[in-house]
Design goal:
Radius of gyration: 21 Å
Shape: globular
Low-confidence stretches: 1-10, 205-214
Distance between the termini: 32 Å
Number of strands: 0
Length: 405
C-alpha cells in the first residue's frame, strides 16, 4: 500500500510544468518563438526576389548570414554563465528580435536584410537558449525527479510552433504582404516576454555553483560538446536540402498533386511531436546517446527513400523516418548538450541551439553543389552520407568516457 501511495504521490512532468510559472511561461514563450520564426522562414527568399528584386543566387546567399548566430549565441551564453542573469538576457534577445524583424519589414534596399540578419537577428536564437538554461537551473534547485520530462515538454512547444507557423505565415503573407508578416513575426518574438512576466530564476544553491559553474569554460573542456554539436550539424544539414529540393522534385519529376505534396511535407512535424515523449521513455531504458545513434540512422533511411524510391509512398516513408530523427534529437539534444558542459549550461544551450544556423549554411552549400553534380533526386545521397558519419560519431561517443546516459 505504501508503494502505491508513493507512486501516486510522484509528480508527473506535465503537472510540474503546469504548476511552475517559469516552466509554464517557457513553454508558451517557445511556442511563440517557433510560430514566429517558422512563419517567416519560407517567405524570406520570396521577399528578396519579388520585393527587392534579388536574383535566385543572391537570395540563396542570404542563408549564409546565419553563420553569425553561433557567435552571438556564444557571447550571450558566456555572459549568462558569468552573471547568472538568464531571464534578463532572454528579454534583451527577444527585444532585439522584435526590432530586427520590424527593420526587415521596412527594408528598402537589398543589402539591408543581409545586415539585419547577420547583426541583429543573430541574437534571436539566444533567447530560447536562455530559457532552457533558466529551466535547467530551476530543476537543479528543486532536484525534480522528472527534470528530463520537463525539458522535453518545453522543447515540444517549440516543435508545435513550427507545425503551425508555416501555414499561418503563408496565409498572412497571401492575405496582406510579406512585410506585414515580418512585423507579425516580430510581435511573436517580443510576445515571448509576456508569459514569463517579471519572473526571476531561483538562485542556485552555493554548493551547486561551486561544483558545476566555473567562471569561464576553457576550450579543452568544451571539446565533447563541440564534437557532439558538429555531428548534430551533419544531421540537420539535410533539412535545408530537403525543403529546398524535395518540393521541386515532387512537383516537376513525380508530378504529385499539390495536396499530396503538402501532406508529405506536413507529416514530419506531426510524427516528431508524437514521438518526442516516446523518445524520453526509450532513452531511460537504453541511454540517450544509444537512442541518438538510431535517430541518425533514421535520417540515413529517410534520405535514401528520397533518393531511390521515386514514388509518393517513398516520399511519405522518408518523411516518417525524418519524424523519427527529430522526435529523438528535438527531445534529447538540448539535454545531452547541457550534460556535456554542466559547468556552463547557458553556453552549452546557446552553442547547441545556434548550430542549426551553421547546418543551414552547410546544407545550402551542399544542396547547391550537389544538385549540379548529382541532379535530382540523387542530391539526397549527400545528406545520407552525412547521416552515416554522424551515426558512427555518436556511436563512438556513446562508448567513450564522454558518454551521456
Amino acid at each position: 500500500m505504501s508503494r502505491e501511495l508513493a507512486v501516486a504521490a510522484a509528480p508527473s512532468a506535465v503537472r510540474t510544468v503546469w504548476n511552475s510559472p517559469l516552466y509554464r511561461g517557457a513553454t508558451v514563450a517557445l511556442f511563440l518563438s517557433g510560430l514566429g520564426i517558422s512563419a517567416a522562414a519560407p517567405q524570406i527568399a520570396l521577399f528578396l526576389v519579388d520585393d527587392l528584386h534579388a536574383s535566385l543566387t543572391t537570395a540563396g546567399l542570404y542563408y549564409l548570414t546565419n553563420i553569425t548566430a553561433p557567435v552571438a549565441g556564444y557571447l550571450v551564453g558566456a555572459r549568462s554563465d558569468r552573471t547568472g542573469k538568464r531571464l534578463g538576457l532572454f528579454r534583451l534577445c527577444a527585444l532585439a528580435g522584435f526590432l530586427g524583424w520590424c527593420a526587415m519589414a521596412a527594408a528598402g534596399q537589398l543589402w539591408m536584410p543581409f545586415v539585419i540578419s547577420a547583426v541583429v537577428l543573430a541574437f534571436v536564437g539566444a533567447a530560447g537558449s536562455q530559457l532552457f538554461a533558466a529551466v535547467h537551473d530551476d530543476l537543479q534547485v528543486t532536484e525534480s525527479p522528472v527534470g528530463d520530462g520537463v525539458v522535453s515538454i518545453v522543447r515540444m512547444a517549440l516543435t508545435a510552433g513550427w507545425i503551425v507557423g508555416p501555414v499561418a505565415g503563408s496565409l498572412l503573407a497571401t492575405a496582406t504582404n510579406p512585410r506585414v508578416m515580418f512585423v507579425a513575426t516580430g510581435v511573436c518574438t517580443l510576445a515571448q516576454i509576456v508569459p514569463i512576466g517579471f519572473s526571476r530564476a531561483r538562485p542556485i544553491r552555493p554548493e551547486v555553483v561551486a561544483e558545476t559553474k566555473p567562471e569561464r569554460p576553457g576550450l579543452r573542456i568544451m571539446v565533447p560538446l563541440l564534437i557532439f554539436t558538429g555531428l548534430y550539424v551533419l544531421i540537420y544539414a539535410g533539412e535545408p536540402i530537403k525543403y529546398g529540393f524535395l518540393p521541386i522534385y515532387m512537383h516537376n519529376d513525380l508530378h504529385l498533386p499539390t495536396a499530396v505534396s503538402g501532406a508529405v511535407i506536413g507529416i514530419q512535424p506531426l510524427i516528431e511531436l508524437i514521438l518526442m515523449p516516446v523518445a524520453m521513455v526509450v532513452a531511460r531504458r537504453i541511454g540517450l546517446m544509444r537512442l541518438m545513434v538510431l535517430g541518425a540512422a533514421f535520417g540515413v533511411g529517410a534520405n535514401l527513400c528520397f533518393a531511390l524510391t521515386g514514388n509518393a509512398a517513398g516520399m511519405f516513408a522518408g518523411q516518417i523516418f525524418m519524424g523519427g530523427v527529430w522526435g529523438v534529437f528535438a527531445a534529447l539534444g538540448i539535454i545531452v548538450a547541457q550534460r556535456l558542459l554542466p559547468q556552463a549550461v547557458a553556453t552549452a544551450s546557446a552553442i547547441f541551439m545556434s548550430s542549426t544556423a551553421v547546418a543551414s549554411a552547410l546544407g545550402g552549400l551542399t544542396g547547391g553543389v550537389g544538385v549540379d553534380l548529382l541532379g535530382l533526386p540523387h542530391v539526397f545521397l549527400a545528406p545520407a552520407l552525412y547521416g552515416v558519419i554522424a551515426a558512427v560519431g555518436i556511436a563512438v561517443m556513446s562508448r567513450s568516457r564522454h558518454a551521456v546516459s
